[in-house]
Write a structure and sequence with these properties.
By secondary structure, the chain is α/β, with parallel strands linked by helices. Helices cover 30% and strands 25% of the residues. It has eight helices and ten strands. The strands form two sheets. Strands 1, 4, 5, 6, 7, 8, 9 and 10 form an eight-stranded mixed sheet that branches. It is globular. The relative contact order is 0.18.
Length: 213
Amino acid sequence: MLDALVHAGGKGSRMGYREKSIILVEGRPMIDRVLDALEGCPRISRTVVTVSRNTPDTERHLRSRGVEVLHTSGDDYVGDLQAAMTKLGADSVLVCPADLPMLTSDAVDALLDAYTATPAESFQVAVPARSVRLAGVEPSYVFDQGEELALCAVSVVDRKGIIEGRTLSIGTWVTDDLRFALNVNTLGDLEGLRPWTGASRSSSRSPPQACRR
């Protein structure tokens, strides 16, 4: 069993300082779609959302849903991550942003299946950058591993290792599943989602590839 940690306390500077977690996609706040995906995974026993002074409306929305929230600074991702890990209890934690509105439970299950097969202490998700660009989204961060890959913001990490500040061994799951890559950082990204929002959220457009470490 794992805990899930959703980050929703950022400043949203690239969105004009709007609280992007509660921007509507198909009539629903983005974060609700992410929470639905996580809550549908039987291996996730607890889901906690980080909020900050940057996201008061997000916090009110989450509390109205009965979602467990945790206050962090919202200024430093690494510091917020370490602070949040001290409040969780599972050995492994699925870390996820609130701006992946196409995420689904079966996509998360596929990631967890791949995670159980690796000895890596930190297991990150990557999608071929070319596929992401063809979908109309510019990757935020790319790296080369024999091909150009877009690093997604979803990972499974060793909780104690994060708290202790250890350098964790890293595994990378390379998948064609764009639901991990269609995140919203700008208003342009939001527009780019329109061709996808009518697609089924219950199945992948492409099957996941094998994990490459």
